[in-house]
Amino acid sequence: MRLRYLEAGSGRMVVFVPGWCMPARIFEPQIEVLSRRWRVVSLDPRGQGQSEVPRGGYEPTRRGQDIRDLLAHLGGGRVVLAGWSLGVLDALSYVDMAGDGRLAGLVLIDNSVGEGTPPPARTRPSTFFANLRQRRDQTVRGFVRGMYKTPQDEAYLDEISRQAQRMPVEASIRLLSYPRPREFWRESLYAVRRPVYYAVTPRLRNQAELVAQRHPQPTVEVFDGAGHALFVDEAARFNASMEDFLARKAAWA
Asked: Which residues form the AB hydrolase-1 domain (predicted)?
């Protein structure tokens, strides 16, 4: 199958992997700014953006393999791999199968990495999957709006919402049901000996503090005023942090 990616700039490479059902173009604020100095690549994972929509492969091993295939296709030396939301888990799946040999650094944006105590069990089961099956368009549009704390253009929100519904609904649900214990993600993270940048919103503050204590080369940052898409809500701050990580902390040698 064919996977599509966006690419801009030249030099040392940073590769972005977006979250659940999201397109590569969601990283446009980073592509525009970081490509002035770096080679920036943003992946449309299988079934997302403008990549092909296959019947299967919506599980962590195949998604990690897709990242490995992308890096092999791009060639070159080390890269900084940056995953957001579900892309955090896809990046850690890549690390589990391929190790950190290709990595100059790992950037994880606003998802759990399995640190600390598990969240308390829900008193009621979530209705999100049922809503996806029964009222998909309304549910996805509400999800997309909820990713931001800053006002976004209506045409932009509409396009992101429409692209987020390309894959079959049951495939989108499988993406949210990865068959891995939370310890898998933590062990995958700490197997990475390269520098790590963990950027989170306040709900993950405790995990960020633990990563700062336990990883040998950590950078952690809490975006208190941002939504889940913190790299859009606070693009200037996030881009400045990425520039610093790429220029001063990543292990390119």
From this structure: 14-240
